Amino acid sequence: MNTLSTLQPLFDLKHWCYAGLILLAACRPQYSPLSSIEVARNGINGGALSRDGQYSVVGSVFHGGSLWRNSDAERLYNWNHSKDSTDDRIIISADINATNQRALTADAATLVLWDVSTGAATRFWTSPAEVLDSKLDIEGRYALLGLADHSAVIFDAIQGGITRKFSHKGRVRSVDLSDDNLIAITGSEDHSAIIWQVSNSKPLFTIQHKEDVQFVKLSYDGRYAVTAAQFDRAELWGVEKQRSIAQLPLKKERLKRGLYITSARFSDDSKQLLIGYPNRTIELRTTQSLKLLKTWTLPKRKHWQPTNAAVIDVAFDQQDKQYRAMSSDGFVHLLQ
């Protein structure tokens, strides 16, 4: 198994010195991963880490889907939507439920529900429209889908069929669901993110951005939400009081270059927020004040190339009290 950890320093501390002023200022350390495992040689289209950081569901660019156990870098199963190798069904979204019993993979037209313990496909469905994002509920029975037909739906992944529908005026790019299935959030190309009351499919409140909303995330208890739009702001919200708590301190230069949030996850107690960006950067912040606790920079696959890798997913590794990150260049990283 390929690793990147042996030649990586634990962290690199950069300093800036202004010549002639004899002024030396130190920035916050930029930490590197403890170890990295290669899960897709040509990169990842869509993937997800399990809630506890123990598993990775990977949709690679050329080699279909797979399930990995992160602790020992073991590829457990190949998960493809078609037995025909010439039928390229690219997995664009994936998720695994909170108890690691079921996983979902989605290409543009189909959904497959998998049994994590056996690797078997238990259900295969045609999606109601082109799938852009997916989220399994805590039991792995229902899937919240963001669709290209300007809607998000809760789909019964066991019996089939739509149980709830949430409408937008643009494609729904990102979705999330609280643990109790009472609160959902959707982010759309109509420049809005909406927090919904699932029981009656009615909006609790709407968040307006100036650009397409690319990413949304809920805390597990549904108390907090994060919304982010490309070339616009990223913001933390209090769901119960329906108000903004704080904006993430993204520099204007980064926003102009379209560097928005590509992944985020709250800790189980909602006190911390782990955030991934499209430039190999990961931040750990407190939820209440967004105070920066730690920053990591992921290594490049090829150091001589100027390309970046987006952070597809992040997780709190509950077993080892560490963190995991999945990057679009095909790696899962262990962080401390």
Task: Give an overview in words.
The strands form eight sheets. The chain has a six-stranded mixed beta sheet, with no helix packed on it. It has a four-stranded antiparallel beta sheet with strand order 5-32-31-30, with no helix packed on it. It has one helix at 252-256, and strands at 11-12, 15-18, 23-26, 30-31, 35-38, 44-49, 55-60, 65-69, 74-79, 93-96, 102-106, 110-115, 121-126, 131-136, 142-147, 151-156, 162-167, 172-177, 183-188, 192-197, 202-208, 213-218, 224-229, 234-238, 243-247, 263-266, 272-276, 281-286, 292-297, 311-317, 322-327, 331-335. It has a single domain (36-335), classed as 7 Propeller (Methylamine Dehydrogenase, Chain H). The model is unreliable at 1-26 (pLDDT under 50). With 336 residues, the protein is mainly β.
Output the keywords:
51% strand; six-stranded mixed beta sheet; mainly beta; 336 residues; 32 strands; disordered N terminus; 1 helix
